[in-house]
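Lecture 7 notes: from sequence to structure.
We start with the chain below.
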Amino acid sequence: MTRLNNINGWPHLVENENVLVATVDGETEWGSFERFELIQEKLDDELGEFYFLPSVEYELLASGIRKEDLSKIGRDVDLSIRVAECLKVRYLLKYSVEGARPAEIYQYSDEQYPLENGKVRLRWQIYDLLNLNVSPAFEVIASSMPIPLSSRDYVDVTGLERLTLKAINRSCREIKKGMVKAED
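Predicted structure tokens for the same chain:
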């Protein structure tokens, strides 16, 4: 089961524009890269080129952007415009995994049947690097329902990895749904 919550605006990305994807806070670079590949696969038909921030870091450093400034992309107007011009990208996609709760075996009475067990919340922030006034944020929550083993025992076999992938898939569907046609 996935649920979508609007935080601030909706993602209306212009199709065929290039996208820079940041690493995921709290994930290894390799884990972030695997998520990047999934996002790229899901959105590749609608958007232009995809760039993974660590993969283009050298290019940014060579253009005079300092390593410590990379975390400010999307918040600093001048820096964001420089990055957009250097990489020929328009959007920065950032997301964080929040409130991840692994599934467990529970023992409940009939009145306490759990409605959800494992849970992952992805909080998305999409920055238009050419216009930082517009930066929609939304979150997708993926949760799983436990399976009864007996009248009092329940188990949830859905792992956090599966819930995270489910939330990414739903997020990409929402981004596609809000896609805007490019003006000729």
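Points to note: The chain is about 30% helix and 25% strand. The domain at 2-177 is CATH 3.40.50 (Rossmann fold).
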